[in-house]
Amino acid sequence: MNSLLFIILILPFWIFGQNIQNVESPMIITDGTILHIDEDFVNTGDVLNEGQLIVGGRWVNVGIYRTSGTGILELNGPLSQAISDLAYIDKLRLSGGDKTLSSDLRVDRLELNGSKLIISDGYSLEITASGTISRNPGDYIIGRLVMTGPNTFPVGTANRFLPVYLEPLTDSLVTTGIKAVESKLEGNLPASIADLAPFHWIMDENDELYNVQLGFEDADFLMDTVGNALVVESESLNSEVMSLFQESVVGSLDSMAVSNGATFPLSLPYFSVGRKYTAEEKPPLKVYNLVSPNGDGINDFLYIESLDSYLECSISIFDRWGSLVFSQTGYDNRENVFRGQNNILNNKELVEGAYYYVIRYKGKKIANGFFELTR
C-alpha cells in the first residue's frame, strides 16, 4: 500500500498493511488508532503519531517523524531492525528480537519487551531526566546509555547482564553515560586485590562523586565466595587500579551485586569488580618507599601493606655501606615499626638518605628493596 495523499487516521481502530511508503505526504495517526505494518515502513513525508505505529520490517525515515506525548512507536519484527534516522522519540517499544541503534537518540519512555537494544560504537541512547526504562528479564542495553540522577542503568555486553545503580553524592540531577565492556582492566593491582572481573564499565568523566552498586552474573572469578567482591576504579584502561572496598554484597555467584565502601566513593571513569585474597592465598607485600618521621602523621614510619597476612615476619634494614641498622621480628605497622632510628646501637637517629630492607617470613625472603629517609 503506497500513500501519496494527505492521510488522517482518526478512528480508534486497527489498520494493517504489508508495506507503507509515505512519499512527501503528511500523515496523522490520531490518538486511539493503531497502524500495524507487517513489513517495511518508508517515510519521506511528515508523520505525526498520536496513536500507535507498529512496524514489523525495515524502519526507514528520511522525512519527519513527530509525536505529541501520546504516540508510541513499536518495532516488533523478528528479523534485524534498526533506528538510524531519529533524534527524539516520546515512547519507544521494542519487541520480537534484538534491535540496533545507529544514531544518537533521546527517549522519554523506553519499553524493552523481549529485545536487547544494541547501540553502535560512537552513538548513545539518552533517557530524559523524567524518563523511564521498563524491561523484561533478559532485556538490556548494549552500548552507551545516558541517564540522570540516582538511577539504575540496565546495561550489559553481548555475553552478560551488568546493571549499575549510580547515586550522585552532591548533584542529584547530574547526567552521565555508562557502557559495559567485556574485558578486564589492565592496570597494576594494589596488594589488597588478587584478581579482577573479566568485564568493566566506562563512565563519562566528571567531577561528581558516586555511591555505586554493581550487578553481575557468573562470578567464578570470586573463587566461590561472594564476600570476596570489591568495587575498584581506575583513571583509564591501563592505569593503576584502586580499591573502593565493600559496603555490602547481595545475591549468589550466579547473580549478585556489590556496593563500594561507605567512605570510598566512585570518582574515576573506569570501574569494575575485584577479588580479595582468599585465606589460602598470600597477597604480595607493598613497602611504601618514603619515611619522614617529623610528627606530621604522614609517612612517620615505614609502612608495609598486607602485613597482617604475614604474622611474625622479620625485617632487616641496612645503610648504604651494608651495615645493619634496624632489625625487628613481628613488625606490625603499629608499635613495632621503623621510625628512622638505629635499634642496633642505642636507638640513635639515622641520617637522611637511601636504605635497603629485607623482609623474611618463616625464614624465606619475601620482599626487598630501597626506601628514602628524610626529616
Categorize the overall geometry.
Answer: elongated
Quaternary organization = single chain
Distance between the termini: 87 Å
Number of domains: 3
The percentage of residues in β strands lies in over 45%
The low-confidence parts are: 1-6, 9-15
State the share of residues found in helices, binned by percent. Answer: under 10%
> What's the main sheet like?
14 strands, mixed
How many β strands by DSSP?
41
Describe the 3D structure.
The chain has no helices and 41 strands. It has 375 residues and is mainly beta. The protein has three domains: 1-139, no CATH class; 149-279, no CATH class; 286-373, Immunoglobulin-like, CATH 2.60.40. The strands form eight sheets. Strands 3, 6, 9, 12, 14, 16, 18, 20, 24, 25, 26, 28, 29 and 32 form a 14-stranded mixed sheet that branches. A five-stranded parallel sheet has the order 13-15-17-19-22, with no helix packed on it. Strand 36 and strand 37 form a beta hairpin. 33% of the residues are buried.
Summarize the structure.
This protein is 0% helix and 49% strand. With 375 residues, the protein is mainly beta.
How is the secondary structure organized here?
Blueprint lengths: L1 E2 L3 E3 L4 E4 L2 E3 L3 E4 L4 E4 L3 E3 L2 E4 L2 E4 L3 E3 L2 E4 L4 E4 L5 E3 L4 E8 L3 E3 L3 E9 L3 E3 L4 E12 L5 E2 L1 E5 L2 E3 L1 E2 L7 E5 L6 E7 L13 E2 L3 E4 L6 E8 L11 E6 L7 E4 L2 E4 L3 E5 L10 E6 L10 E2 L2 E2 L12 E2 L8 E5 L5 E6 L11 E2 L5 E2 L3 E9 L2 E10 L2
Parallel strand pairs: 1-4, 2-5, 3-6, 4-7, 5-8, 6-9, 7-10, 8-11, 9-12, 12-14, 13-15, 14-16, 15-17, 16-18, 17-19, 18-20, 19-22, 34-41
Antiparallel strand pairs: 20-24, 21-23, 23-27, 24-26, 25-32, 26-32, 27-31, 28-29, 28-32, 30-31, 33-35, 36-37, 36-40, 38-39, 40-41
